[in-house]
Amino acid sequence: MITFAPGPSKVYDSLPIYLNDAYQEGILSANHRSSAFMKLYQETEQLMRIKLHMPEDYKLLFTSSSTENWEIISQSIVEHASFPHLLRFLRKKWIEFAKHILPATAGLKIEANQSIDVPNLQIAEEFDLIAITQNELQTHLK
């Protein structure tokens, strides 16, 4: 089975079992303020902290898409302009999207397999946010 949110990505063969378990436990109908969701969120956050060595002062946020992330970042974090360092497709899309909200947004084009010397990067001080995307979906590059 292939899903297109935000993929496409191959779905694990055991997904029907997990979905049935979630259904039986009532997770699928739990709203975002319920005790069931809060427990699930806390367990997920704790596992992310352990597996990704996430510092205690970091907060885990769930969003539905990269476009939603761009909007949240552009409207809620950046005051003047952002400077996303992104690979081909996503860089172009983020900059186009962010410029509608923050016209001074600019960025650096990074080709596949190109490395950047982060400590020695020269970026103007007017950028409130510098974003680096580690990877990009291959489906967008075709």
Summarize the structure.
The chain has helices at 15-25, 35-52, 66-77, 88-101; strands at residues 2-3, 9-10, 82-87, 108-110, 129-132.
| Strand percentage | 5-15%
Tell me which oligomeric state these chains represent. Answer: single chain
How many separate domains?
A: 2
Low confidence ranges:
none
Going across the biggest sheet, name each strand in turn. Answer: 4-3-5
**Residue-averaged pLDDT, rounded?**
77
Order of helices and strands: EEHHHEHEE
Write down the Rg: 18 Å
Total helices: the number is 4
Q: What does the largest sheet look like?
A: 3 strands, parallel
Into which percent range does the helicity of residues fall? 25-40%
Total strands: the figure is: 5
Termini gap: 21 Å
Structure description:
- The chain is α/β, with parallel strands linked by helices and 142 residues long.
- The chain has two domains: 51 residues, no CATH class; 76 residues.
- Helices cover 39% and strands 12% of the residues.
- The protein has four helices and five strands.
- A three-stranded parallel beta sheet has the order 4-3-5, with helices on one face. It has a two-stranded antiparallel ribbon with strand order 1-2.
- Helix 3 packs across helix 4.
- The longest helix has 18 residues.
- The radius of gyration is 18 Å and the shape is elongated.
- It comes from Daphnia sinensis.
- This is Aminotransferase class V domain-containing protein.
- Pfam families: Aminotran_5 (PF00266).
Task: Please give the structural blueprint.
Blueprint: E1 2-3, E2 9-10, H1 15-25, H2 35-52, H3 66-77, E3 82-87, H4 88-101, E4 108-110, E5 129-132
Parallel strand pairs: 3-4, 3-5
Antiparallel strand pairs: 1-2
Helix pairs in contact: 3-4
